[in-house]
Design brief:
The chain has nine helices and ten strands. By secondary structure, it is an alpha/beta fold. It has a six-stranded mixed β-sheet with strand order 6-7-8-3-9-10, sandwiched between helices. The protein has a four-stranded antiparallel β-sheet with strand order 2-1-4-5. Helix 3 crosses helix 4, helix 3 runs parallel beside helix 5 and helix 4 packs across helix 5.
Length: 268
């Protein structure tokens, strides 16, 4: 494995639970409770688990959408979990995200071109340069550059997700977090977007954290896999080894429950 670009070390995120008006009970929800993994340039790690296991919380912690309880998030040798608000700007440019719902990720009142160029322009890129970059990115995601002047409602779900990918890439990131990025799409469209993400990862040498509940999807994109249960990683290793011979009983249970009994995980 290449040298890690992104490292997560013993990450913890605990949320307080208040008692409310009619209850005196209080405590903590251990959403993420000691998660560690690494992702190298040009490689994909799939974070897999059932809904509620904490995998999306890990992604949001890496993006610094909230402060963590304990642990470290290291990007290219520098801790980013303890950055001050004033120092976050450069980090946010290097780590971008594609969320699950392409219908809610784009402002319906703005053209897709405006959505793509907004980030680069906020970082000082001239409008004509940002538009030139947007046109190239539309071609990269297999869409016509002329579509930049259209609005989100004029596109299908798969097309919108391609636009969201282009918007993330417009910031020229080093790490891409894909949080259930294909789960809202039809199976045939999923396959197209997965192939696109693979091509982009290889072409741009991105480190990708691919968060999914679907083992079949993970098997098609990942080099490494980390299986989460109740806020912890219970199995972690090369994808071919984990898919061929899962060691933890929870991982085996996920395989047994996966739709499509004839799917060959080891050959994916």
């Amino acid at each position: 494995m290449n040298a890690p670009l992104l490292q997560v070390n013993d990450l913890k995120k605990h949320f307080p639970v208040g008692g409310g008006l009619f209850s005196r009970k209080s405590g903590w929800v251990y959403a993420v409770d000691g998660v560690s993994f690494e992702v190298a340039r040009g490689e994909t790690l799939s974070l897999v688990g059932e809904s509620g296991c904490g995998k999306s919380t890990v992604g949001r912690a890496i993006l610094r959408l909230f402060d963590i309880t304990a642990g470290q998030v290291v990007l290219d040798g520098r801790r980013i979990d303890d950055l001050s608000p004033g120092s976050l700007q450069s980090m946010r440019r290097r780590v971008q995200v594609v969320f699950q719902d392409p219908y809610r990720s784009l402002n319906p009142r703005r053209t897709v071109g405006e959505a793509i160029i907004e980030g680069p322009m906020n970082y000082g890129l001239a409008r004509d340069q940002a538009l030139a970059r947007a046109r190239k990115l539309m071609e990269l995601v297999r869409m016509e550059p002329q579509a930049l002047g259209r609005y989100p409602h004029q596109f299908s779900g798969g097309q919108r997700q391609r636009i969201c990918i282009a918007r993330a890439l417009a910031m020229e990131p080093e790490v891409l977090v894909a949080d259930e990025a294909v789960s809202a799409l039809d199976v045939s469209v999923q396959a197209q977007v997965l192939r696109l993400l693979e091509e982009i990862r290889e072409r741009l040498s991105l480190a990708m954290l691919f968060i999914t509940h679907d083992l079949r999807v993970a098997a098609q994109v990942c080099d490494q896999v980390a299986v989460m249960q109740h806020g912890r990683v219970v199995e972690y290793g090369p994808a071919d080894e984990v898919f061929a011979a899962p060691k933890h009983e929870y991982t085996r249970a996920l395989f047994a429950a996966a739709p499509g009994r004839d799917f060959d995980f080891a050959a994916a």
